[in-house]
Amino acid sequence: MQSSRIFIVGSGVVGAATGGGLREAGHDVTFIDINEARVKELTARGWDARTEIDLTDEPESLIFLTLPTPHEGHRYDLSAFEAGTASVGRALKGSAARHTVVVRSTVPPGTTEGLVKTTLEENSGMVANEGFGLASNPEFLRAVSAAEDFANPWMTIIASRDPQNVERLRELLSPFGGELRTFSDPAEAEFIKAAHNIFNATKISFWNEMWLVAQKLGLDLDPIAATVARSAEGSINPEYGIRGGAPYGGVCLPKDTCGFLGFAKTIDVDMPLLAAVVETNDRLAAIVSEEVDTATHAATHAQLRMAASGKETAAAGASGQQQHEPA
Ligand SMILES: NC(=O)c1ccc[n+]([C@@H]2O[C@H](COP(=O)([O-])OP(=O)(O)OC[C@H]3O[C@@H](n4cnc5c(N)ncnc54)[C@H](O)[C@@H]3O)[C@@H](O)[C@H]2O)c1
Domain named UDP-glucose/GDP-mannose dehydrogenase dimerisation: which ranges (predicted)? Predict the structure, then answer.
């Protein structure tokens, strides 16, 4: 990986941390940013920074998209991301080499093989996976410790339909250490990054909602939350509660979620997150029981058909098992 250049398109927090870390590891890195002040800032550090990507006569390179993907209300605003991707597409058009475009921005699932692929193809006149490679490699760093997090990742995700792209990125990123997982579908990598952030946000909101209750009761939440962080299986066991399609059941979880909702009402505290937890579980239970009915129905028919033909059959497994048996 020493031989080819790495382009960073969008040289803000993630771009600078990614490119800076790769420079330190000995790679030849060029930073691209439309913001001239940013380019000057990076140039002052002694880094190769430019306002436009030029791939003319450039041997095959890796091009990381670290462009902004802010939200506007309840939707991603991908306009800057799309504009930056289009500029890469135009640059690909003028290049004979086969470059690989790696999406490192946080984007909704399906973006790499949707918007990115289409935008690159339209602007380059090339076909993805032939004229250029495509991969997803979401970034997990925290803004407060961006450079340190890039240099010491705890998880690296690489996804591409083309195993050669996966291997190329593995070679580039595995020296930084940490766990590295690969996928063939870029949408899986994109989903991982989104779920990662949403899970963190949900945990924070959970404890903030509990803080409102504690405030009302005149209790200090800190020692309470610190104890639950050590007692609740959902906190201490990373495997607990991570399966989909399996609602919670038993006695305690339904009792305490519903009971506490009513209790909060008596002390005038709104708990929209807890209400959503109950609603989500009810919905899942209904969906799953429908699936069980369908599976049982299908199994019965299959058994009848098999019995009619004189063969034995195993009953189809129903997917509706419960996620956890509560204490
Ligand atoms: N900041 C974080 O902690 C963090 C962590 C992980 C992932 N991410 C994701 O990484 C992506 C980048 O985030 P960031 O925090 O680095 O954003 P940022 O705003 O710090 O940097 C984005 C840079 O892209 C430049 N830019 C905008 N349009 C451009 C174009 N057309 N061509 C070239 N450059 C252009 C901007 O001038 C800016 O310098 C986002 O998808 C974000 O969600 C951010």
Answer: 188-282
Query: Could you read off the pLDDT of 230-254 as tens digits, one per residue?
Result: 999 999 999 999 999 999 999 999 9
CA dist., res. 115 & res. 279, Å (int): 34
Query: Cα of 146 to ligand 1 centre, how many Å?
Result: 12
CA-nearest residue, atom 18 of ligand 1: 12
Which domains does the chain possess?
6-194 (3.40.50.720), 232-300 (no CATH)
Find out whether the beta carbon of 38 lies less than 6 Å from any atom of ligand 1. Answer: yes
Farthest-apart Cα atoms in the chain, separation:
81
Asked if residues 137 and 158 have their Cβ atoms less than 8 Å apart, the reply is yes
- pLDDT, tens digit, for every residue of 291-303? 766 666 565 555 5
Q: How far is the CA of 62 from the centre of ligand 1 (A)?
A: 18
Q: Is 113 exposed, middle or buried, given 0-12, 13-18 or 19+ CB atoms closer than 10 A?
A: buried
**CA 88, 92, 185: angle at the middle one, nearest 5?**
70
User: How far, in Å, are 3, 238, 296 from residue 323 at the CA level?
Assistant: 50, 14, 20
141 lines ligand 1 (CB under 6 A): yes
